[in-house]
Amino acid sequence: MKAPPWWRSRTVKGMGYAAPTAVFVAVFFVLPLLLVGQMSLSDWPLLAGDRGVNAPENYTDVTDSALFWPAVRFTLLYTVIVTVVLLGLALLLALLVQESRPGAGFFRTVYFLPSALGLASASLLFWGLYSPTTGPLSRVLDTLGLVDDPVSFLGSPTSALLSTVFLIVWKFAGFYMLILLVGLQRIPHEVYEAARMDGASRGQIFRSVTLPLLRPSLALTLLLCVTGSLLAFDQFFILTKGGPDNSTVTVVQLIYREAFQRLNLGTAAALSIIVLGVLLLLNALQFRGLRRADES
């Protein structure tokens, strides 16, 4: 039997199918990444363009900045708080609506609805709610007699952080609940029945059956939550503008300041490369930990 022409081979067809995606990735990811890498090694003012290589001056300027380490500490603190609170609440909500009972579908929809709202829109909504002069929250507290003066939810570093965490938990708890709910529904009922027949309590079933079998979904939510928290920008830019007294400046806000306020694309690109490296390292560690857990 005569072999088909080379252009009809499976290899060529596969390359043809993959070509649009490869072009998209090259144009919108690889080339911009290479450009950012070049910027990070160059003296590159926003309004003047490339003035030549100055490596490693951009990296040393970034780490020597007075805001760099406070921004790193705040971003890590925010990430830890959001991850613990958000994933804990999402798991609780998923367990509450796991069973098919009257009203379960309604509550699933209600919990998920905030996720349909854009983060910038949600931040603007909460900025209005938190306003001490026009916002309803301060008025409600005053009407109930819980406060004597208007409450400034964003007026101190601690209250600004907690108010922003509340926004993020409200916005994303339903989304992560949905991911965990899918993982819970994939666990066979026979496994639970066998554990009950062995006399396991609810706590033992949760620790020994639910959590181990839910590990892939938990790993996905952890990856998304940590990555999103480390890249936090919209909520703090809209709610606090980095205040009060630069106490809520995140690393991505620092990139924005370097690029569009100090007009220095070189240091902004250097900080972007540092953030990218940290994210790649964290993701690799999480995948490695998940792989080891699956093998054990």
From TrEMBL:
Name under which the protein is recorded: Carbohydrate ABC transporter permease
Q: Which domain of life is it from?
A: Bacteria
Q: Which InterPro entries match?
A: ABC_transporter_permease, MetI-like, MetI-like_sf
Q: What is its main location?
A: membrane
Q: Which organism is it from?
A: Streptomyces bluensis
UniProt KW keywords: Cell membrane, Membrane, Transmembrane, Transmembrane helix, Transport
Membrane protein topology class: Multi-pass membrane protein
Q: Mark the transmembrane ranges.
A: 21-41, 76-97, 109-130, 160-184, 217-239, 259-282
Q: Name one Pfam family in it.
A: BPD_transp_1
- Gene3D superfamilies xref list: MetI-like
> CDD domains from the entry?
TM_PBP2
**Stretches assigned to the ABC transmembrane type-1 domain:** 72-286
PANTHER family (UniProt xref): ABC TRANSPORTER PERMEASE PROTEIN, INNER MEMBRANE ABC TRANSPORTER PERMEASE PROTEIN YCJO
Where in the cell is the protein located?
A: Cell membrane
Which family does the record assign?
Belongs to the binding-protein-dependent transport system permease family.
